[in-house]
Design brief:
The protein is mainly alpha-helical. The chain is about 70% helix and about 5% strand. A hairpin with a 2-residue loop joins strand 2 and strand 3.
């Protein structure tokens, strides 16, 4: 038995030793006695694990035993038993909400990482492992995602999908592998058509199997994909579908998660009133969301991340900052991807209020975090935030050069979520250097791209900036048309902050157009908006927007 135990790359349980290293007729008490002897001889270490114990061969001992294992001619037999044990243990641990032992199974699952890697390596190296490759990879890649090892998840899911046979197509294992591949691909490589196709295929299988938990998981991942690619017209339909599934499941955390999905979808699509309503609903069951563990279909979602941006747009800048601070401190998301998102969206809010020191801090943390976990697409986003900060601080030429590098990479990755904001910064930087035609061309292309996808939350600001450039070039009539379109759209979106910025730009334009009478009319139009801001301040939820402190209108966003 000693030599057979060497197949375990990490700690193992008594049940693992029985399943892998003994014959069917071996009694449990004999295995316990054998392990106790190995412990007494210092060949095996042991440590408590709740009500049971975990064992582990010392490194030198294991190396020696591994050399001896082939001598008995059973190396592949034991390796197959080991791979089968890992696969079945991980499969049994893939439980959804309601399982009373979910926490214990999550701990057992994470303890199998080294053995999962060893089992996968053997199954693809040995012909004896061929029949185990797909179910083993399906079980292991779920573990890799839960442990945020997304590069490994991508590699093994892609490799396993290439070996699918007819019987495995449409199975729960293809579902798991397609879901994992699409999810991992967009965070480690790019938001490719391959990633979308994998997610859509996984969703098709989940619905065919009546697997509600995985249907929700796939809809959530597709929603994330469309957020990243700027396909905002798809967001609300996928979120609505997810909400229906969550209610079918009847899980409190799942319903709260669906509200978060709806909130972020309405936010990006440009309906901040609906966004806030759904996010507020999600927050009411935030405790249930925080209590979810890896493996739960609603794990790692939090309404606070999008809510901070919605609050700023609705005219509550101070409240938005209050919402952000826990997310970048002690209450930061545990999931490494959601941690990146919290840093990115927090940086955007700090930029809107003009706190460039905080933007710089968030950017440095994002760069380090993305590099540590192999989340390459976020490196281009971090470069965009760095450039944004440089332009705001007057390092315009350097900021432009950095954006000229970051934006093509974002477009190549189909990562459009932040591209429109960074393109607006590039346009402002070019205008500041007197390169007005280039600035207008950048903004024209950006607006056209956003319009092609049905618009977005930042379209009012893009139209305002277009109006500012048109006024700068002397085309006052075109500037007025752009600014009026911006103000109308901002009001329609319920985005008081964009509306206030645009009305201030209109007031400045009217000063140029018609003198005192026109300027007075513009200021008269501003008064009800400013009264709305003051009303919100009196509720203790908004900053000093009238003085510009909370709704910074100078510099990039």
């Amino acid at each position: 038995m000693f030599q057979r135990l060497a197949v375990f790359a990490g700690p193992f349980t008594l049940q693992g030793a029985i399943a892998v290293a003994t014959d069917a007729a071996t009694a449990e008490d004999r295995v316990v006695h054998a392990l106790e002897q190995l412990v007494a001889k210092s060949l095996v270490s042991t440590q408590p694990d709740g009500a049971s114990r975990r064992y582990r061969l010392l490194d030198a001992t294991r190396a020696y035993a591994m050399q001896k294992l082939p001598d008995g001619g059973q190396a592949d037999t034991i390796a197959r038993r080991h791979a089968l044990y890992v696969q079945r243990t991980l499969e049994a641990a893939m439980t959804e909400p309601g399982s009373p032992d979910q926490a214990a199974r999550a701990q057992e699952r994470s303890g199998l990482l080294a053995d999962a890697r060893a089992a996968l390596a053997w199954s693809y190296a040995s012909a004896d492992g061929a029949g185990l490759r797909v179910p083993l990879a399906g079980s292991c890649t779920r573990l890799f995602v839960e442990l945020s090892l997304l590069n490994e998840a991508r590699v093994w899911s892609d490799r396993a999908l290439a070996t699918l046979d007819g019987a495995e197509r449409g199975s729960k294992w293809e579902l798991e592998l397609q879901s994992t591949l699409g999810h991992a691909f967009m965070f480690t490589e790019r938001n490719s058509e391959q990633a979308e196709a994998a997610l859509r295929r996984g969703l098709e299988i989940a619905e065919a199997l009546g697997d509600h938990a995985n249907t929700f998981r796939l809809l959530s991942r597709l929603n994330m994909f469309y957020r990243r690619t700027g396909g905002y017209r798809h967001l609300v339909p996928t979120a609505r579908h997810a909400e229906r599934i969550a209610r079918l499941i009847g899980d409190t955390a799942g319903v709260a998660c669906s509200k978060a999905l709806l909130g972020v979808s309405y936010h990006l699509a440009g309906d901040q009133v609906e966004a806030q309503a759904h996010l507020d609903e999600g927050l009411r069951d935030d405790a249930a969301l925080r209590g979810t563990r890896p493996g739960h279909f609603a794990y790692s979602r939090t309404p606070q991340i999008p809510l901070a941006r919605v609050l700023w747009l609705r005219g509550f800048p101070d409240h938005a900052l209050e919402c952000i601070r826990p997310l970048i401190g002690a209450a930061a998301p545990r999931d490494v991807v959601m941690h990146c998102i919290a840093l990115c969206w927090s940086a955007s809010v700090f930029g809107w209020v003009g706190d460039w020191t905080s933007v710089e801090t968030m950017t440095a943390r994002l760069t380090a975090h993305a590099s540590l976990h192999g989340l390459a697409p976020y490196e281009a986003v971090a470069a965009g935030f760095r450039a944004q900060t440089m332009i705001a601080r007057g390092e315009i030429a350097g900021g432009i050069d950095l954006l000229r590098t970051a934006l093509p990479r974002l477009h190549a990755d189909r990562y459009e979520l932040y591209a429109s904001s960074f393109a607006a910064d590039l346009s402002q930087g070019l205008a500041a250097l007197g390169r007005l035609p280039e600035a207008q061309q950048v903004l024209h292309e950006t607006i056209a791209r956003v319009e092609q996808e049905g618009g977005a939350f930042d379209m009012p600001e893009l139209l305002r900036l277009r109006g500012e450039l048109e006024a700068h070039s002397g085309n006052l009539d075109a500037a007025e048309a752009s600014l009026l379109a911006s103000a109308t759209l901002a009001e329609h979106q319920g985005a008081l902050s964009w509306q206030l910025r645009t009305e201030m730009s209109l007031a400045r334009l009217r000063d140029r157009q018609g003198g005192a009478k026109s300027a007075r009319a513009a200021r008269q139009h501003l008064r009800p908006i400013l009264r709305g801001v003051r009303d919100r301040r009196s509720q203790g939820s908004a900053g000093d927007a009238e003085s510009g402190g909370g709704l910074n209108s100078a510099g990039p966003r």
